[in-house]
Amino acid sequence: MIWNGEEILKINVLDFEKSFSLAKYVSQQHLINEEVANKIIIKVLDIWENVDPTTKDIWMDLIESAGFYPYLLRIVESSTQLDITSEIRTSYHSSNNLGNITFHKEQKKLAGLIADEQNLIVSAPTSFGKSLLIQEIIALDRYDNILIIQPTLALINETRISLKRFSDKYNIIVNTSQILGEKNIFILTAERVLEFEGLPRINYCILDEFYKLSSLRDDERSDVLNITMRKVLKFNPVFYFIGPNIDQIPEGFQEKYNAQFYKTNYSLVNTEVIQVNLEYQTTGVRKRAKEKEKKLFELLNNNRDEQSIVYVSSPQRAYTLANKYYAYLLEEGFLKETQYLPVCEWIEENLSEEWGFNELIKNHIGVHSGIIPKHLVHSMIEYFNEGKLEVLFCTSTIIEGVNTSAKNVFIFDNKKGPSNLDFFDFSNIKGRAGRMLKHYTGRVFIFDSIPEREDFVLDIPFHDQKIINDEILINLDREEVHAQHIDKYYELNDYDEDLLKVIKRNAVSVEGQKEIVRKLIIQLNTNPELVIWDNFPNVKQLQFLIQLAWEHLLKPTETTRPMTKNKLPVTIWKHSTKEIHTLIREEKNYLEGRHFNWDEQRILDTAIENVFRENRHWISYKVPKWLNVVDSLQKIVCQKEGLDITGDYSFFASYLENEGVDERLSLLIDMGVPSSVIRKISYIIPRDLMNQELIQFVKSIRKDNVSSLLEYEVNKLKQL
């Protein structure tokens, strides 16, 4: 028989003749195009029950030759069904350090390089199993201090939970206030690495989503990540950088750091790309948008026995579309029996019984975005992975290291925020379809054209310096600076030495910080009370500080809407003095006075969304960062101006960042415990407990100890 790709994709049954013929074809392809051969093997695994039994031994040999050992072990009832050489090879691919884990061929190669302490930069598909090798590194038990850098705080807790098995040997640190043990695993963002006073010598560094080093991805955190990595690499650690879809790394990086760039497309999951046929029956943007939505809803409903992820461009789009899907199921009579998960009770007690988000969860629909609280984000992934949610409506936050995937991915929008989705992000979203040992084939439904393919050549500004911002440049040593940047380097460093140390450490706008220093000096000579304060600021002090930060620390590319410079101090004041119930009620009243044509549900949902957005982006992230920057500068300026006292903004910064929770308990926030829980249990926590003792005490708290605890809150404590 003569085979082609389309025929193979359509196969559902392999009789003896077809099976033997296809196996022969695959054997030939292995010599010509291994990737094509592997895809066919995965297709055969997908229909394994319909493969002629007398040919299965041939296919098992091909599965082994492809290195698909996890699948090979799955389809044999016991190792005695393997011949002795296959048994030896399968045993060889078992992890030497992790019990009951068998690697595929490419993982085993990397595990060998890891054991040899080779520095690795690995670009591999999402379904490759790169994160499993993090556990292999730790299980080697060779390194006293292992640093894992994650792009966001939301991912820190997910990583911590996956590594709890090592807590008997390692002290797991997610917060800069924790006390070091003899052996430590640090799971931190780049910002927290720079903030960590007394960070010990790092023996092994793992950088997740290493493409975020690039200055070309328009990520406001790339400068901080570059400064952090440059600092960490000074320790000369062994390192493992991981991410997807990188085609090249900068010239000279491998040689300088004795690293190997390991790029592979090897995957144990096939991806079937389906272009959704939208034959519009109407004209006009709104009518066609409704047609597009209906097509999505029909596809989702037709595939409800398989979990799905729907990608859209923004948090508001994700929530709105999820609600429209629920309305479609309701109208068509397709709703299933509702469920009442523990999180539903928490939402009713802490937010509102009427919030539409809760109704979605009860009907097996989830929303994942960067504006909802971190513990809710984690719960959405947890429930999805447990099969309690059929569909997850997501934004680009699903790309970044989140440990989930689905049988089906629907790329509904071709935007990421206001920008067009490029090929790199498209590939990352597509990679969420299918998961090793769960789905042999993942399906990707595309509603717009696929972005034009372009190679992603990674730039690393602190190394190649092709595009380098002042904040990175000023943190380099003179001998590291390339010739074309020397004049700028000297210009940046022509400044007071004590202030320069602080400016470098802050890792934000150099010129902006210098301008803040100038304005602080003026105020200290005219209105010193605007600068010198501690605990909580008054209205004028807060307005002055926010004006300084807004005008001099925002990047030109940062999006601030709908926040404004004048609105932000008022917003901070509200969030720092009022309960979330009150904030939601006030925002609801405000919206009712502006949008007379909105119904009650839309007003409430928008009010909660607005309060969440303010809190996640401004109150718990951006503003505390600004407070710490200005605080560090005013302390030095006050000293240099000969003043006996300085301000101290650290309490207020911590208060905002940790939702009003006592700083000694802020560790629990980073570990995924909602602030509502901490407020309920804080009175029974002995004040002298710190670090591991604190965690163990809190972990043991049950409903019998605090009757007001909800099941959801008890579960969060158990996850510590």
From TrEMBL:
The keyword Zinc-finger does not apply. InterPro entries: DEAD/DEAH_box_helicase_dom, Hel308_SKI2-like, Helicase_ATP-bd, Helicase_C-like, P-loop_NTPase. SMART domains: DEXDc (SM00487), HELICc (SM00490). Keywords: ATP-binding, Helicase, Hydrolase, Nucleotide-binding. PROSITE patterns: HELICASE_ATP_BIND_1 (PS51192), HELICASE_CTER (PS51194). Residues 320-480 form the Helicase C-terminal domain. It holds the Pfam family DEAD. Residues 111-263 form the Helicase ATP-binding domain. One of its GO terms (molecular function) is helicase activity. PANTHER family: DNA POLYMERASE THETA, PUTATIVE (AFU_ORTHOLOGUE AFUA_1G05260)-RELATED (PTHR47961), DNA-DIRECTED DNA POLYMERASE (PTHR47961:SF6). This is DEAD/DEAH box helicase.
